[in-house]
Amino acid sequence: MPSPLEKTSIILGVTGSIASYKAVDLASKLTQAGAVVDVVMTSEAVNFVTPLAFQSITHRSVVTELFNPTSEIGIDHVALAKRADAVVVAPATANTIAKMAFGMADDALTATILATQAPVMVCPAMDGHMYENAATQSNIKVLKDRDVTVVGPVDGYLASGLTGKGRMADQDEIEGHLKQLLGRNGDLRARRIVVTAGGTQEAIDPVRFISNRSSGKMGYAIAEAARDRGAVVVIVAAPNSLQDPVGVNVVPTVSAKEMKSALEAEVENADVLIMAAAVADWRPKTFAHQKIKKASGSDTWAVQLVKTQDAVAGVKRNGLIKIGFAAETEDVVRNAKSKITAKNLDLIVANDITDPDGGFGSATSQVTMLDRNGHSEDLPLLSKYEVGHRILDRVAILLKP
Ligand code: CTP
Predict the structure, then answer these.
(1) Cα separation of 58 and 39, whole Å?
(2) Do 299 and 357 belong together in one domain?
(3) Å from CA of 220 to ligand 1 middle
(4) Could you say which of 212, 249, 335, 344 is catalytic?
(5) What are 106-127's pLDDT values in tens digits?
(6) Is 212 one of the catalytic residues?
(7) CA of 282 to the centre of ligand 1 (A)
(8) Claim to verify: residue 254 and residue 227 sit in the same structural domain
(9) Could you give the dihedral angle defined by the CA atoms of residues 44, 48, 53 and 55, in that order, rounded to the nearest 10 degrees?
């Protein structure tokens, strides 16, 4: 599955702000992800960045005037507006936001926005006081009430020399929200999906713990794929070093016990649980409240372990679709099959973690999906995001009434 931006038609509206130069990078990112990007600039934006900069990146002519019969698009901004899958205004000044709120159409950008039926996203960038001003705040509210997605601004250093809220959101944030916006009517629209990810940590004392090699990448990739198909996604996360995906709610947990209780609360009104986390099977029997000193022990140290409860097996809610994972080092299919029944799963995703291309921490994975009817499907080596989509294709079928 390619990027959800592939072959989409995106209008990038650029208004006159010191953040305008960042839009060049955004145009580049969207183009690289396979989108056809048409840039529409206001006359103030042209003072900050040249249309040529955008044209060189998007390989498309840039619209700067409402009526320009010599441009490829000519005076027909309506055609551009019709063709678009989404309109992103980044950066959006207080002035353009105000014009949008009033439905004005006195330049190529605002006219395009008024003419489009595609979803619109604005990424404000302005001086902190201009952003806080009651007029701007109420204009932003008007846009939100009209289902315009507002991303940012964020805190940081402003061109005025002050620090405050007014910086344009960063590219990844904008791109993530755009993917979510494009997928909002996808086949998992409004479905509630809980994904677990990462490897739990079981504390021995305040400085030591027992854990495993899970990076969390598989669970996070599934969560992003589900978001990009319109699902409402929660990640119940064991410790990991990954960035929270945009548009996904992340509930942090540490131990197997914490993960079990967090996910029990989260699945209350969920449609699907995808258990990609590597949950500890054992935890230290006792927790030492003070650091265990090296000098106090002998040359060997036996930590007594007790079994944890199985989180996914313990979730017994009628109608909830449960997908498990089986990370194996031998007899992959046989071991995975026995887990389907033991944990009452609808589907299990098995992989051989000794495979160097598809083991822990890798960006790719080669998995076999097994269902409760005994059918198995071997997938080729794919990116974890693509594996996520293949799992979700099965979820979409399981969800059909
Ligand atoms: N799992 C769980 N709670 C646990 C252990 C595992 O919910 N305490 C879930 C995992 O998230 C995964 C599935 O059960 O979806 C299988 O996990 P795995 O570690 O492969 O299997 P185990 O049941 O732990 O069995 P074994 O260690 O013997 O392979």
Answers:
(1) 8
(2) yes
(3) 18
(4) 212
(5) 999 999 999 999 999 999 999 9
(6) yes
(7) 11
(8) yes
(9) -10
